[in-house]
Design brief:
Elements (H helix, E strand, L loop, with lengths): L7 H16 L8 E6 L1 H5 L10 E4 L11 E5 L5 H4 L3 H4 E6 L5 E7 L10 H14 L6 E5 L2 H6 L7 H11 L3 H4 L4 E3 L8 H11 L4 E4 L3 E6 L2 H23 L9 H11 L11
Parallel strand pairs: 7-8
Antiparallel strand pairs: 1-3, 1-6, 2-5, 3-4, 4-5, 6-9, 8-9
Amino acid sequence: MQNILNSWFIQDMVKATSDMWLKGWDERNGGNISLRLDAEDVEYYRDQFSQAPHCVALSQPAEMLAGSWFLVTGSGKFFRNVQLDPADNLALLQVSGDGQSYNIHWGLTNGGMPTSELAAHFQSHAVRKLISGGKDRVIMHCHATNLIALSYVLPLENAAFTRQLWEGSTECLVVFPEGIGIVPWKVPGTDDIGNATADQMRAHSLVLWPHHGIFGTGPTLDEAFGLIDTAEKSAEILVKVYSMGGMKQTITRTELVALGERFGVTPLAEALKD
């Protein structure tokens, strides 16, 4: 019998949380991740599930995710500890058939609950599942330092923020041509911020919570991590450029258009306006 701790999804989550903590994006219990799984992914490990799964009602129904399995980080759990004890810091859960609740089948061995941002994750998962035709399986939230810093000095408007990130690093337009979405500051852990995030996820794979952090999505944990990492690298460059007195030269609009044409992507039109 193979231990669930050796499954690809547990191992990938250990790697992602460890990498994010080492980046400095997830201090203490900051940040959360959810990975949507297929029934086939977990079927082999059913004999290791709890005999009395904990049922929790959802504050917002998730009919589009009915029956879906998720591996998620725990509320109040430290990313740096996932590698030490995955069974205590992660939770494997399944949304009920009617989408009104979920059952925790594995994990959180010393007690606790899934991430307090679970509602925001589920709302975004439902949107991205529809938008991507089921390809996007990850919602990743962290406190990427330089992106947060920029939210204090750049206009909190999708096109303007996007344009600055595109100019900060050549690869950004290629990696996220649809740009970055921004929600107004809201209290975290609420249905309100979840709704606002999901609305931005309809058009953007990156969503910024000003003065707080960033959400990224993708088909795999590596893809979502790489997306955030790319945007954060550009933000770090911009922070340094601004601290040196600002841009003296940059990537022009004409060059950004040529970049999109070369790599076959369609950039966010509003971000190309001068």
